[in-house]
Amino acid sequence: MPRALLFDRWVPDFLSAHPDTTVVEIGTGLNTRHERVDNGRSRWHELDLPGVIDLRRHFSADILRRTVIAVSVTDRAWAAEMASHPRVHPFVAEAVQAHLYGPDVRRVIDLLADCFPGVPCRPWTPPALVFFDTEDQKRRPRQGRGPYALVLP
Description:
Blueprint: H1 3-17, E1 22-26, H2 33-37, E2 43-48, H3 50-56, E3 66-70, H4 76-83, E4 89-93, H5 102-115, E5 128-134, E6 146-150
């Protein structure tokens, strides 16, 4: 099953349980998940590097419930800003890990755990859930290990 299809199943499942959530799409690239699975009520924050966001803005613009943010996922400022919002945050990081080196992967997970503390260790429980996939940089693009859902401890 294609990776995007799995993510496109997980996010609507989460949105059905938490319809007024804020989805944080990390490393959004030219992804159109918002257009495919938005429930009409949730807010979306889509993050990627400034050069990628500049390209993205040629194809799509911010709309009322969707904001595109030019920032590195390793920059603590975006997470601190998101943590100030009282909504549930599912974090979606599809094909991001392959572009980060080991220490940066750990930094991002630590950043999420620090900025969104107290997350129970069971699926679909507020305030944060992370959907991600793994892929070895030396073996990409076809030999990744597949998508996972992680609930921050």
